[in-house]
Amino acid sequence: MTNTLIISEEKLREYTDINNNLDSKLITNGVRTAQDIYLQRLTGTTLYEYILAQIDADTLGGHYKTLVDDFIQPFLIYASYWEVLDDIYTRPANNGLIQPTGGSNSEKADGTWYNRKRQGVENKRDYYAERLTNYLIQNQDWFPELNDNGPFWKQNPDYGTQYQSPIVFNRFTKSGHLQGAISAGLRIGDSRYPQFPWGSNVFYPGPRECC
User: Fold this and answer.
1) Sequence-separated (6 or more) residues with CB below 8 Å from residue 45
2) 19, 108, 188, 210: which one has the fewest Cβ atoms less than 10 Å from its Cβ?
3) Model's pTM, two decimal places?
4) Which residues does residue 108 pair with via DSSP β-bridges, in sequence order?
């Protein structure tokens, strides 16, 4: 796990309702986990490690700085918060999950309100994940590291089946059918580019008559 954090504890506290008394260690562990698991899954290992190296060297700039400031950090705020929620509201004990109520006091955790809170944070996390993914797909030429994940232990960018269209079109289907699907809001991709399985129709070649 990395020791380089892309967002600070202060930023996470500023943009969420995390109590100022919460142990800093819980926050930094949540940020670290969110980076290593959720962010690395979207960017791939090579781009992720490149960004961390640039931050360590204080040389982050250009498109990479825009990527971090405008797209990665907003995503990490809610990915980290989602990860920290377990430690904020519940603790494991011999008699199950308990909710801290101050000092050494606690009571049995209420799963209903906790799940509602967690779902709200998850919705925001997923919104910023989709926004980050769109940006990477649309500007992949700026980030060559996206396609440089040779060894098996390195992750390729994974945008998940939740972002893929359930409909597959023949490449030479009538242009009217394809354009109609696009106009209806369906995401159209190209199976030749599995690392970018969805997007804003970036692989649609334009109108074409079927032979």
Assistant:
1) 149, 153, 154, 155
2) 19
3) 0.68
4) 98
